[in-house]
Amino acid sequence: MSTRDVPITGEPIRLGQFLKLADLADNGSHAKDLIDAEEVTVNGEVETRRGRQLADGDVVSVGNENARVSLEH
Q1: What is the Cα–Cα distance from 19 to 24, expressed in whole angstroms?
Q2: What is the pTM of this model?
Q3: Angstrom distance (rounded) from CA 16 to CA 29
Q4: Three-class SS of residue 2?
Q5: pLDDT tens series, the chain, 73 aa
Q6: Burial class (CB within 10 angstroms; exposed 0-12, middle 13-18, buried 19+) of 34
Q7: Cα–Cα distance for residue pair 58/60, rounded to 1 Å
Q8: Are the beta carbons of 62 and 19 closer than 8 angstroms?
């Protein structure tokens, strides 16, 4: 399972925002539904907080899709 880097312009970014940015969720409502259903993991652990702050290098997974937070320098 490959992990793709998703560039962000500044840290931190909230999980709900990152799900949309990484195309892992269609919109904010979809992101909330995925998180509420415990279908989202951050660094291999189920995350239930939409406002979770993500940092450079964190890996977010939904199903078979993985996206890594990549801070643009």
Answers
A1: 5
A2: 0.93
A3: 9
A4: coil
A5: 689 999 998 778 999 999 999 999 999 999 999 999 999 999 999 999 999 999 999 999 999 999 999 998 6
A6: buried
A7: 7
A8: yes
Contacts (Cβ under 8 Å, ≥6 apart) of 42: 15, 52, 54, 58, 59, 60, 61
Alpha-carbon span 49 to 14, nearest angstrom: 9
Left (φ > 0), alpha (ψ -120 to 50) or beta: where does 27 sit? beta
- Distance between CA atoms of 72 and 7, rounded to whole angstroms? 6
Task: Using DSSP, state whether 15 is helix, strand or coil.
Answer: helix
Give the position of tokens 């279908």: 39
Distance CA 21, CA 19 (A): 6
